[in-house]
Fold:
Amino acid sequence: MNKDVVGSFAWAGAIVIVALATSFARKSGYLDGDTVLRMVIGLNGLMIAWSGNRIPKAFVPSAAARQARRVTGWSMVLSGLVYAGLWAFAPIPVAVIGGCGAIVIGIAVTLGYCLSLRDKAKAA
Structure:
């Protein structure tokens, strides 16, 4: 099986296990609802950072595609870490807006860089 697929299944399993464990801990009175929400949603940001770290490691023959993958990887890692950090420490309304904003900015940086590479290729 592909290494990326195994890693993705591992992340999915970890998120489900953490969700079930924290839900059980909440029902047992060890955690409150906000902590459970922060832990499970914060794991999504760490998963985005992990997948962003994997993006530039795949082989592509084109130099422009390698550049785009590097920028994509950096933007996804940074936006995923900001997302996870906000869910860990910020108030929940700030974490929702700021976390989603970080992901959208990461996607916009990637899209903008890819469009600039395309324009450079057309000009050349």
Summary: The mean pLDDT is 93.
